[in-house]
Amino acid sequence: MHVVHHITELRQALEAGPRPAFVPTMGNLHEGHLALVREAKASDRPVVASIFVNRLQFAPHEDFDRYPRTLPRDSELLAGAGCDIVFAPDEAEMYPTPQAYKVAPPAALGDILEGHFRPGFFTGVCTVVMKLFQIVQPGLALFGKKDYQQLRVIEGMVRDFALPITIAGGETVRAEDGLALSSRNGYLGAGERAESTALITQLRAVADAVRADPGRTEAAEQAAMHALRARGWAPDYIAVRGRTDLLPTASAGAPRVVLAAARLGNTRLIDNLEF
Ligand code: PAF
């Protein structure tokens, strides 16, 4: 496996072969990322993973500075999962001049849920992913369903710009007790880590309640928010939505997903459950 830091090196390494399978990441990798790399490997394309902590998707008060940078460990893990090339640019390589051109998703998808609580987040994500797509020129790109709204936003971007890239969503990988793996789980103290499973417990409760009686969707969302608050969490949202447009859906039997974001101490966790 090669670790390359420059766009020119990456282009040289890829020029002779087929369009690669691509797993974009911000590093501090866990089993969720590695499952995507293994899925990429199964496509029989060369596999490229990127590691870049993208300043554009962090608000000034967020954790850009303390986001863990763990390239040596990440490289070992990626090699073990079958990755062929790691693209790990520094900020000067990705943004040699301030990134003046941006890609903004439509407000109907980009300004709801995560986008409502993190204004500009999806513009930062789309801009770096579009740039990475131009650099890597993948035929296939894989994103985890843990970041469910991100996956839908990227699918829309690829469709609207007619990019010749297949987007695949990987299932969320969970710890044995149900916590969705995330690079931010490492911020949790021991007590918070034990408490963190309450999020998926509430998502399961909402899914069960709505399955039993779709007319009680809003009550189920409110009850879950209340239950988390009572345990010391600060939830941003718990919302049942249609799986494709992420809009509130009324029709019983339509494929749904319940999405949540909530702060536990200083750590903001997100999760979701399709049902
Ligand atoms: O999901 C992430 O880790 C990031 O949002 C991504 C897609 C790598 C863009 O920086």
TrEMBL record:
It is an enzyme of class 6 (ligase). Gene3D superfamilies: HUPs (3.40.50.620), Pantoate-beta-alanine ligase, C-terminal domain (3.30.1300.10). GO terms for molecular function: ATP binding; pantoate-beta-alanine ligase activity. Keywords: ATP-binding, Cytoplasm, Ligase, Nucleotide-binding, Pantothenate biosynthesis. (R)-pantoate binds at Q57, Q150. InterPro entries: Pantoate_ligase, Pantoate_ligase_C, Rossmann-like_a/b/a_fold. Its EC number is 6.3.2.1. Pathway: Cofactor biosynthesis; (R)-pantothenate biosynthesis; (R)-pantothenate from (R)-pantoate and beta-alanine: step 1/1. GO terms for cellular component: cytosol. The keyword Oxidoreductase does not apply. Beta-alanine binds at Q57. It catalyses: (R)-pantoate + beta-alanine + ATP = (R)-pantothenate + AMP + diphosphate + H(+). Its main location: cytoplasm. It is found in: Cytoplasm. ATP binds at residues 26-33, 144-147, 173, 181-184. GO terms for biological process: pantothenate biosynthetic process. The active site is at H33. The keyword Calcium does not apply. Belongs to the pantothenate synthetase family. Homodimer. Catalyzes the condensation of pantoate with beta-alanine in an ATP-dependent reaction via a pantoyl-adenylate intermediate. The reaction proceeds by a bi uni uni bi ping pong mechanism. This is Pantothenate synthetase. The lineage of its organism: Bacteria, Pseudomonadati, Pseudomonadota, Betaproteobacteria, Burkholderiales.
